[in-house]
Amino acid sequence: MSALTATAIAHPNIAFIKYWGNRDENLRIPANGSISMNLDGLFTRTSVTFSPNLKTDLLFINGKPAEQVALRRVSRFLDHIRGLAKTDWYTEVVSENNFPTGAGLASSAAAFAALSMAATAALGLKLTEQELSRIARLGSGSACRSVPGGFVEWQAGTCHEDSFAFSIAPPAHWNLVDCIAIASSGHKSTGSTEGHSLAFTSPLQLARVADTPRRLDKARRAILERDFATFAEIVEQDSTLMHAVMMTSTPPLFYWQPVSLEIMQKVSQWRAEGIPCCFTLDAGPNVHVITLSSSAPEITSRLSVIPGIQQVLQATPGGPTQLIEQ
Ligand code: DP6
User: Fold this and answer.
1) What digits encode the pLDDT tens for the residues 19-76?
2) Is the CB of residue 282 below 6 angstroms from any atom belonging to ligand 1?
3) In terms of residue numbers, what domain contains 263?
4) Ligand 1: which of 196, 247, 249, 253 to mutate, judged by most atoms within 8 Å of the beta carbon?
5) Is 267 domain-assigned?
6) In contact, 218 and 294? CB cutoff 8 Å
7) CA distances (Å), origin 248, targets 198, 202, 258
């Protein structure tokens, strides 16, 4: 039999209500639900080839063979898909990001969303969006949110079957722009997978999780009603709550750099001046400044001149993970 191949493209996403901590680490069942927006313009393109001639899985990221740790994570994930399709063929995975590597932008969400779709399509598995979202979650939690398009909610659930993401509004629903200020941190920070495992060592995590339904409701409603003032308030509170948990875990995780805090303070001032904007930070020093399209040029030029900011990327709401015709 000849090789089976497919290619898919997926966007990373920015969480407005964050996923931090798992109730089941192995299945990546999160401690709390989350809400995000896919980032158009940024993408990962992944080609997958299953072949009876391969003796092992191979993984290339941006033209280079991947590190062993990344290969093991991908192989383990592919084992799950091989199990579903009842095949033992090894796979060659070739993945390219169009966003700058080493810029500290989480790429696992787009990577595992694209890999899930390419691998299952190559093997001829016909899956619903919900099934694909569940599978992507096994590779990286946030990847389940990159499967559907636009504004997306991941319902935490309690087991593999009920933990998946779905779209709450299409990309065209709201003209938000994520202006991403890339701050060079100079050192590699603790990855999210390790970070999630520390979440419950913080005495604040239980309170954060218990309060999540309120934040989810507020953020969901603000998005659906395009209410920027409410949105800004809850997005910033949620980001800072997550970082409070990170900073008070054992060992503590400090992702903010001085420039990150400087931007957070500036964003508050800019909002007081009347510019619609708010900040959110993931597991790194980059600051995502969310604004409306009319203010994106102004925010971008203000961010670009801050010393310590290498680059500012802009992303509008993005579509779902998609197969690319070969
Ligand atoms: C801070 O999905 O990267 O970006 O499931 O271990 O791959 P794994 O973690 P990941 O965690 C994302 C953490 C976050 C918040 C978020 O995106 O919700």
Assistant:
1) 999 999 999 999 999 999 999 999 999 999 999 999 999 999 999 999 999 999 999 9
2) yes
3) 173-315
4) 196
5) yes
6) no
7) 10, 5, 18
